[in-house]
Design goal:
It is a single chain. This protein is 52% helix and 7% strand. It is of the alpha+beta class. The protein has two domains: 21-112 and 387-440 and 476-689, Collagenase (Catalytic Domain) (3-Layer(aba) Sandwich); 144-318, Neutral endopeptidase, domain 2 (Orthogonal Bundle), CATH 1.10.1380. α7 (158-167) runs parallel beside α14 and α20 packs across α26 (586-610). 56% of the residues are buried.
């Protein structure tokens, strides 16, 4: 679903164990997560200390956020949110402002109360205290990281380096390939190893290769030089040039991000022996030993040609260059947990990526660390306090209604053959729904936390997370396991696990509330539910059957009709300029765009199903349909910095928020009727040209 965060793509395919889970989340958050809630019409968020839900008005829509001087068909985003745009400034430590940040910030305030109330002798309290003790961290300077930097300096040959790269799966550092367990494409009841390309420090390959990203490249190169100097390198400028050159060659060999989301292209099974023969430039035996992975009979090798070519690049690159690259990435990963000099130096770089002008306060960064390291431990308490059983029951009823509506849309599909419909309905029937929090909580008792050892805490947490993930390898898939914490403001479709998951964090106003108009719940969280359901039937989800196996269950004619509709839909998005010179890539965003459109249509049908044949009341002069579409638009309202939008367009399979409003509604017949959108409107599409997939 992806609101604030980067994680919830249409098919949740894990090709990486995230080399440093806590570190990675902290680093990503540094430039992009929220800091301060806006008073934008939300009630009663009167100050940053409020722990109350951000309810809009008396029935769920912020009427003052609209700009009714704009015709809905000319710009529905402006019509629904233009007043809010005019009065809202993006806080200096945020990449954007919007409902997602507001709900995230509320959740952070709630978590802060829980975390700060935990004793230092507890894991939660001890980890948080270790991060907040800035004086101790500053006094240590670079000392904690130098043990790891010096370990790299002592590496004697490339086999030893390959082994070291394998170990970075569970600690600071980098690797040219990255792997982790996920369901087998043939037998989705068993986890096998998935392996993918890695090795880049910038967000995506285009940052190295396109002239439009030269400012970001320059900022990154300067950051590398500063970092190498801080860890004692005698020639930091020369080191930075060598590291940039190495990563640029990796980028040239890497697959484009749009290709990496194609399940047909990334499904390349090999054994360990076959992989070693296919990509001989890396000592795979040493790498797997370092990663703690025994020889495998079946590995899903994702970007196969890229992995082959990156391994060849590794073979011909001087060991000294690879050692410099490794030392930099160790220090880069560790920077948020080192002295202020390291933190500030890294932020000097990341702010160029996002446009954020101010680093978040330390307490908020500390919460991010706790959330990433002890997520379910915190989440268990959070769920008990902030997600009542009544909310869970109402949400589950909504999901049931959405699934019924999706079933109706499949059965009534005018272009799909009966046998394809039968397979689609079987997949929908078997789709698991998980709401609020997992049935079984994780056990963190094996993780040692020392309130006086921040660096050690993060390393131990990374190793703990890695071991937890790796324990699934070659074991039965546990479909009840969650890939998100309960407090996350997000949702996801589990892909090969054929499940949809809605954490408690997103199940609060203005996305969802027990006390608002039903049209609002269906337009906001209902569209999210529909989005996740229809990910199972988007351009990639449709290649996965009811059991989660990658299999073509379509007739040839149905597949051709689907592809034709998708192509036409993509052509619409290719015309959307999200930022100056940055047009949406329809190949990259296709799955999310399809889920946005179909999810909205399914939610609309479910809303009308909930009326049981009755006419919806008119409230404040607005019909039920108008309230539904306004709630949808306000749930996606977002005001983002230009650099942040450009980064999203280059590296994210989700379209920027503005186009997640306009792109879907202009293909929905009911929207035209609700707002009397006429052919002279800017975003009008003739009925016969509107996309009709699900």
């Amino acid at each position: 679903m992806k609101k604030l965060f980067a994680g919830a793509a249409g098919i949740a395919i894990a090709v990486s164990l995230a080399a440093t889970p806590a570190a990675a989340r902290q680093i990503a958050a540094e430039a992009t997560l929220a800091a301060k809630a806006d008073d934008d019409g939300a009630v009663p968020a009167k100050d940053e200390g409020s722990l109350n839900a951000l309810t809009f008005g008396s029935w769920g829509v912020d009427l003052g956020a609209r700009d009714t001087s704009v015709r809905p068909g000319d710009d529905f985003d402006r019509y629904a949110n233009g007043g809010w745009f005019a009065r809202t400034e993006i806080p200096s430590d945020q990449a954007s402002a919007g409902v997602d940040y507001d709900v995230y910030n509320l959740t952070q305030r709630q978590l802060r109360q829980l975390v700060t109330g935990a004793p230092a002798t507890s894991q939660v309290g001890g980890l948080y205290q270790s991060f907040l003790d800035e004086a101790r961290v500053d006094a240590l300077g670079a000392k904690p990281v130098m043990v790891d930097v010096n370990a790299v300096a002592a590496i004697k040959d490339k086999s030893a380096m390959a082994r070291f790269m394998g170990t970075t799966q569970g600690t600071f550092g980098s690797t040219i390939v990255s792997g982790g367990p996920y369901a087998d494409t043939n037998d989705p009841t068993v986890n096998v190893l998935w392996l993918g390309q890695a090795g880049l420090g910038l967000p995506e390959r285009d940052y190295y290769l396109n002239d439009s990203f030269k400012p970001q490249r320059d900022a990154y190169r300067n950051y590398i030089a500063r970092t190498m100097k801080m860890v004692g390198n005698a020639a930091p400028e020369k080191a930075a040039d060598a590291i940039m050159a190495f990563e640029t060659e990796i980028a040239k060999a890497s697959w484009a991000i749009a290709d990496r989301r194609d399940i047909g292209k990334i499904n390349n099974p090999m054994s360990s022996d076959e992989l070693a023969a296919y990509a001989p430039g890396l000592d795979w035996k040493a790498w797997f030993e370092g990663a703690g992975i025994a020889p495998q009979q079946r590995i899903i090798v994702n970007e196969n040609t890229a992995i082959r070519d990156i391994a060849a690049l590794y073979a011909k690159t001087p060991l000294d260059t690879i050692k410099l690259w490794q030392q930099f990435h160790i220090a880069d990963n560790a920077a948020p947990y080192l002295s202020k000099a390291f933190v500030d130096s890294r932020f000097e770089y990341t702010k160029v990526l996002s446009g954020v002008g101010e680093l978040r306060p330390r307490w908020k960064r500390g919460l991010t660390l706790v959330d990433g390291s002890l997520g379910e431990l915190v989440g268990e308490t959070y769920s008990k306090q902030y997600f009542p059983a009544s909310a869970k029951a109402k949400m589950e009823a909504l999901v049931v209604n959405l699934k019924l509506a999706m079933g109706d849309r499949i059965r009534n599909n005018s272009w799909m053959a009966p046998e394809t419909k039968t397979a689609a309905l079987a997949k929908l029937e078997k789709m698991d729904v998980m709401v609020g929090y997992p049935d079984k909580w994780r056990d963190y008792s094996g993780l040692k936390i020392d309130p006086t050892d921040l660096y050690g805490n993060v390393k131990r947490s990374a190793a703990f997370e890695y071991a937890y993930a790796l324990s699934d390898l070659n074991k039965p898939v546990d479909r009840k396991k969650w890939s998100m914490n309960p407090q996350e403001v997000n949702a996801y479709n589990g892909g090969l696990e054929n499940k949809i998951v809605f954490p408690a964090g997103i199940l609060q106003a203005p996305y969802f509330s027990e006390s608002v108009d039903d049209a609002v719940n269906y337009g906001a969280i209902g569209a999210v539910i529909g989005h996740e359901i229809t990910h199972g039937f988007d351009d990639q989800g449709r290649k996965i059957d009811a059991n989660g196996a990658v299999r073509d269950w379509w007739t040839a004619a149905d597949a051709a009709r689907f592809e034709a509709q998708a192509k036409g839909f993509g052509a619409q998005y290719a015309t959307y300029e999200a930022a100056p010179g940055a047009f949406i890539n329809p190949d990259l965003t296709m799955g999310e765009n399809i889920a946005d459109l179909a999810g909205l249509e399914v939610a609309y049908d479910a809303y009308h199903r909930s009326l049981n044949g009755k006419e919806a009341p008119v409230i404040d002069g607005l019909t039920g349909d108008q309230r539904f579409f306004l709630a949808f638009a306000q749930a996606w309202r977002d005001k983002a910095r230009e650099d942040s939008v450009k980064q999203q367009v280059a590296s994210d399979p989700h379209s920027p928020a503005r186009w997640r409003i306009i792109g879907p509604v202009r293909n929905v017949d009911a929207w035209y009727k609700a707002f009397n959108v006429t052919p002279d409107s800017k975003y009008y599409i003739k009925p016969e040209a509107r996309t009709r997939i699900w």
